[in-house]
Description:
By secondary structure, the chain is mostly helical. It is 78% helix and 0% strand.
Amino acid sequence: MNIVVLTSLAMLAFAGNSLLCRIALQHTGIDAATFTSVRLVSGALVLWAIASRQSAPGPRRLAGGWLSALALFAYAEAFSFAYISLPAGTGALLLFAAVQISMLGWGLSKGEKFSRWQVIGFVLAVGGLVFLLLPGIASPPLQGALLMIVAGIAWAVYSLRAKGAGDPTQVTAGNFARSAPMALIVSAAMLSSMRWSPAGVAYAVASGALTSGLGYVIWYAALRELKVTSAATVQLSVPVIAAFGGVAFLGESASLRLLVASVLVLGGVAIVLLVRTRQATSR
């Protein structure tokens, strides 16, 4: 399949996670813990089926690891509870900002050298996140915002641990299989407040099986043809797609604060990535 088509489908899938979760929690009777459990279980089943077809017949060891599965679980759980109160576009921007800032910060802590322009880009991205969270009429609910930042940090940890961990589909399948029981334990602990509906479960299954499970497989296929920096840069589109989707399908409004914060965060990250590309090319 054409690389442009694969990449576009993957970005739509990633943005779709935000839209499906927000729609389910706001317009159906499902609760956040149940949504997460159904999402991870359905994602684990789809990825297991795909991974089984790719592997040789006979017994095989479950790929992935428990620490990565814990990070995946923390991301998915915090993501769902954050979307109880956050608009789709705001949540996607907070998630993206937390992921990128965490990964860039990790690189700095490991001795990666930033040029002057990269420092400016990093400061712009952090400043955009701070600006979005400043108290005011247009600021997002603090609890939801903090939960989404936790989700972003957890996803950054998961992504960093996934580098060089083996076949990505097999590893992701193993991590989903390990994280699903963790989510079910949370649902069992919150059984007294459990709520669900057929529509809510359907959205959760779509999020787990399609936009998570199949979405990751499509993304890994696209990554084989994309340069690392191109792969990172194209993800700048995800918060924008989610914001437009929120306006189109959920009747959400894009505030001036969100627009300014988006320009600062996405522009700052883009500067860092583009300068990194130029440095790699010059070498």
